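Entry for flavin mononucleotide complex. Fields follow.
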Amino acid sequence: MTDLFAPFRFAGHELRNRFVMAPMTRARRPDYVPDAETALYYRQRASAGLIVSEGTPVSPEGQGYIHVPGIWSDEQVEGWRLVTDAIHEQGGAIFAQLWHVGRMSHRSLQPDGGAPVSSTTRPARDPKSMAYVLGEDGVPGFAEPSVPRALATEEVSRVVADFAKAGRNAQSAGFDGIEVHAANGYLFEQFLNPVLNERTDRYGGSIENRVRLVLETVDALIGVLGKDRVGIRLAPFNRQFDMPVYDDGGETYLHLARELDKREIAYVHLNDNWAAGHSVIDEAFLREFRKAYRGTLILAGAMTLDRARHLVEESLIDLPAFGQPFISNPDLVERLRQGAALAQPDRATYYGGGSEGYTDYPSLEIA
Ligand SMILES: Cc1cc2nc3c(=O)[nH]c(=O)nc-3n(C[C@H](O)[C@H](O)[C@H](O)COP(=O)(O)O)c2cc1C
């Protein structure tokens, strides 16, 4: 039986175990620059085999939530350096998740108060689709995303260039690699989804056209960092943030899987974005995906140790990822190893605020 607690090698990286900390936005930096507290939060969790950072916007345009540290400025690169140094001192590994929210933003967050950009002019309008903004009274709160404007064809390369620059910045900041955030209803999914993406240019219509932006971005990042430092996160069958159902959802992602396979990138990270209490990525789909993409595969979404063992044993995935359990259990790997009880996270402190619910969850040793 594969030992999940034993080291795992992939693409020139050596992880001390197979447990991945999933990317989690914590929205705790009013100046948008990671600081010593950010570094402490990650340092406390450095026993994960691999950490994927919270989504970090590649540009001011890519932001949808206040107080989320970005990766476009020199000051931010310096801030992230505190984080990567902390992880490396502890013998851990960390990839930066590069993020552009597309239409999931608000004019108050955009440069010059402009409209957020997307594949489409259709705004996200289900009740759970919310941007996180500063109200007129200066108090943070949720707001309906603004009506987006569709990127002009010739503008798309500028967005790709923003990702390439963010990749260079991630490298300067000392990250082991980057993960393109192409999951969860944000910019890339807004292009992948044919109901939302009604474009008639080379970025709309056929599957080849809808995956073009993702692949152009991946290729640009491979050009900057090399294929071993580029991972990607996808969320097949995701409905979060008003993403309509479409017929060829499975085939769209299998096509993408075949294209990513050719590029031999570091990994693909699937997020099983549960809808209405149900997993949306079943084992039959994982099996298909695995055939199409033969590289390192990570899966997140209500993961448990038993499920992780089963999926790895069946060769359906290589690495299990855990999100919320890492919020409240900084030493999650040790707890799983010992079969110790897991602390439950407090949802009220997921986003915003200070150290409460952030760096004050004790490890077993301290508890
Ligand atoms: C507070 C919070 C913030 C999150 N932020 C991100 C993010 O920045 N990028 C991303 O891809 N997923 C994000 N997610 C999704 C998680 O990475 C993960 O896929 C999800 O929580 C399911 O895993 P879990 O059931 O182990 O928590 C976030 C989840 C939570 C709870």
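NOTE: Residues 156-172 form the longest helix (17 residues).
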